[in-house]
Design brief:
The protein is α/β, with parallel strands linked by helices and 326 residues long. The protein is built from 15 helices and eleven strands. The protein has one domain. Helix 5 (115-130) packs across helix 10 (230-245) and helix 12 (262-273) packs antiparallel against helix 13. The structure holds zinc ion.
Length: 326
């Protein structure tokens, strides 16, 4: 297996060749029932009405807002996973594209996170731990300064700076090197506020695309948002692991990114390996787009609950089973 085959999915034709069972309701249950050698096709539009493309919906559709805090005194002293659990349990039947957080101080920009980017970030994290050396040993490198947490007052107040280098998922692209700011590192009261200010200077095709201004008459630029991508999430996961190895749990406790479980991976993999979609606009069944996978993971989350799919443990992510085209 070539190195980055880890990220390859079968083509629409290969899935068609499995034989297709069509369905247009009970989507989550029908997907869960697909065996590895069975194909399914969703005969339904998944992107909500009113959006002519999945990418527009990702930008302008409804997001799940985690509890907002107005002042430093307001901030609840609970770990971000509790706020995700709380917010996810309240969404009801709404179809949402990402969950979001907003800092109380600093740039005040809304940070948005899609479940699919969280899963893809976990997959990169698994990849560097599972792929044997084939012309190079993939890794996520984390650079910080020893002892910084003990004496730097700035780090205690505003979080630390961490530089990470993350592999890409395609043969063509090289590695991405970027810096995080506002990484909560010190175990103090300020960590609760720092956790909402995390940012990075990373740029990739995904991020660039999310920031393009649409020129349609109804479009407004969302310059007030920043969407985290899989590279940033993988980089943050590696940062958690780096500090954990040194006995510091703060980056883990303050983690803003949902960690997929093995059950969640098994569901997600079916979307790429067993499933096609045929909307009224499609001539023939095709692969799901990323926004359509986002809709399905939201449905899975609603149907099975936050903890079934998104209470994973990074130590276990290292050894997760991901389907491959082998
Ligand atoms: Zn990226």
């Amino acid at each position: 297996m070539a190195d980055k085959d880890f990220f390859k999915e079968p083509s629409a034709k290969e899935i068609r060749d499995l034989g297709l069972r069509g369905f247009s309701s009970n989507l989550v249950r029908n997907v869960e029932r697909l065996y590895e050698d069975q194909g399914g096709v969703i005969e339904l539009r998944l992107i909500p009405e009113g959006f002519d493309s999945g990418s527009k919906w990702m930008k302008h559709g409804e997001e799940v807002k985690l509890r907002r805090f107005r002042t430093l005194d307001d901030i609840a002293h609970v770990n971000p996973i509790e706020l995700r659990r709380e917010a996810f349990s309240k969404v009801g039947k709404r179809i949402w594209n990402q969950y979001s957080i907003r800092p109380v101080v600093g740039d005040r920009k809304t940070r948005r996170v899609s479940l699919v980017e969280c899963i893809e970030g976990a997959k990169i994290f698994s990849y560097v731990h599972q792929t044997p050396q084939i012309g190079g040993n993939p890794s996520i490198d984390v650079e910080t300064y020893a002892d910084v947490e003990r004496f730097a007052k700035g780090v205690a107040r505003e979080g630390g700076e961490v530089i990470v280098t993350v592999p890409s998922r395609t043969e063509k692209e090289s590695r991405y090197k970027f810096g995080f700011k506002a990484v909560p590192i010190v175990d103090n009261d300020a960590k609760w506020e720092i956790a909402y200010s995390l940012s990075s200077d990373h740029v990739c095709e995904h991020k660039r695309y999310q920031q393009i201004r649409f020129t349609g008459p109804d479009d407004q630029e969302r310059s007030d948002v920043n969407d985290f991508c899989a590279h940033e999430i993988a980089g943050y996961f590696a940062t958690i692991a780096y500090f954990m190895e040194r006995g510091n749990m703060v980056p883990s406790d303050m983690n803003q990114f949902a960690i997929i479980t093995q059950d969640g991976v098994d569901f997600y993999d079916r979307l790429g390996f067993n499933l096609l979609i045929k909307t009224p606009e499609d001539k023939r069944p095709r692969k799901l787009t990323v926004p359509e996978k986002v809709v399905m993971m939201g449905g899975y989350n609603r149907k099975r609950g936050h903890d079934k799919g998104f209470s994973g443990d990074l130590e276990e992510v290292k050894n997760y089973r991901w389907r491959s085209t082998e």
